[in-house]
Amino acid sequence: MSSTPVNDDGQLPQRWAIILTAALSAGASAGAIGAAGAWAYSHDLLVALAAGALGGFSIFWKVMKTMHSVVRR
Q1: How far is it, in rounded angstroms, from Cα 65 to Cα 25?
Q2: SS3 of 36, please?
Q3: What residues of the chain score a pLDDT lower than 70?
């Protein structure tokens, strides 16, 4: 599937920087919350790290996919 280039007056790199920053911060927040919740429930470090990594990456990926579809419009 090919996409047509968008004439955005050179704003695309700045937009992607903002998108990446938003996705990273949302992922980090979700990861920290997930890890804290798993730690409070299980008191197991590996479970907390796994839950934090899974939650953080999941939210990061969702934000990136959503923003990518918005930018392509």
Answers
A1: 15
A2: helix
A3: 1-10, 73
